[in-house]
Amino acid sequence: MELSGVSFFGIIVAMVAYLLGMLTIGFMSSRKTETVGDFYLGGRKLGPFVTAMSAEASDMSSWLLMGLPGVAYLSGLAEPVWTAIGLAVGTYINWLVVAKRLRRYSLAANNSITLPQFFSNRFGDKKNILTLIAALVIVIFFIPYTASGFSAIGKLFSTLFHVDYHLAMIVGAIVVIGYTMTGGFLAASMTDLVQSIIMTIALAIVLFFGINQAGGLGAVMENAKGLAGYLSLGASHIPDEGSLFAAGSTSPYGFLTVVSTLAWGLGYFGMPHILLRFMAIEDENKLTLSRRIASIWVVIAMSVAILIGVIGLGMTASGVVPELTSSGSSETIIVTIAHRLSTFGFFPALLAGLILSGIMASTMSTADSQLLAASSSVSQDILTGFFGLKLDSKKLLRVARGSLLVIAVIGVFLAWNPDSSVFRIVSFAWAGFGAAFGPIMLFSLFWRRTTLQGAIAGMVTGGAMIFIWKFMIRPLGGAWNIYELLPAFVLSALAIVIVSLVTKEPDKEVTDTFDQVAAM
Hints:
- This protein is an all-alpha fold.
- Helices cover about 75% and strands about 0% of the residues.
- Strands 1-2 form a two-stranded antiparallel ribbon.
- The model has no long low-confidence stretch (mean pLDDT about 85).
């Protein structure tokens, strides 16, 4: 669909305003970023609303505005709804169980400002072996994860404006690098707050405009009811070849598949960019408010995103937008709806630009947090923590920013291929963090008997099993075809328990700190 001059101008105005706003926030945040602690944890000064919304914005990424509606558009409710339920439950439990305890423990464990540093301090790891392993896990999974974000930005711009993918991707990466490198964690958190608001507005505009264009909610639901299994939670809809609107057939969505899909929620316990928000809040007593805000927003946002997929199919049925017959093209349903909106004049084109900025915001809000986590692993955990590099505060801050820049450049090179799969990388990286960090996070907070050796065994087992299950076991199919996060998480937990029980109990200094935190 070609854009008219008015539509093009309106979209450009909205998106340029958004990008300039992000850079402005980064510049303003840089004035409050004086130490490496400020750069990586914002000086632990986040308010409850910023904590909640920045955590969820950095969590959702472009998956919320592209992946979830795209799956619903093609295959019906089963897969996206069960995934959303798993993520919603995981979000709530993570805030309820982990947030306050981690905030307290990260302070008690020598004021840890990164996740690898917390793990080593928690277990009295004088040689910082756990810091090194955790930092390597972050680098291994986060650099390609960041690259997937850059790739998504490039694809969005190149599809919209028919510009070169590489140029579009580099421009988007420069903006993310710019505000993150200048303002650090505070800039990432503040921009994530703004981006979460833009994402919310984008979802609302698409929802109401889409229902209107499809002929009303009744027409949307009647169309969905006519497709086999489309509204079922026990079966996936399979479109007939060549047409989305023949009755189609169904594929059973059995118990094992449901459990595998719900396992997405386990990933939250190991997500560095989310866990850092728990560590950074100014007042731990306000985490209850943050939990409520985050949980309500996640449920509403994912529900609306799924409904947009169903509405998009209704718009296709009414002839308003063209058919999107592959999984790749269906992920652009919101882009297609935004194009439609932009044809109604300059003001609607501004709203369309806001929608497209929402897609870009969902990607950038994750990429900035990933960059910070990966760069902290290189500068703070590997160079300073493991190799013992001694630098003053200003030099350490320069190293932190330099590490971020180097990692971002590597991400750009990894994103150079425009045909790379964004969502396959996201799914794999999510599983990697969930299995490598999730079990050890829970055991470190709640099991006094956990040992350093058990922590190392669990982290290595979880990270390794992601690769083994994904590439060696899951291809066998049948009962083995489950999301790799679930078996890797379970095996990691077993490794922690078994190795901890057969090794020497933790030192008194370690257990005393645990008891101190538990008594708070």
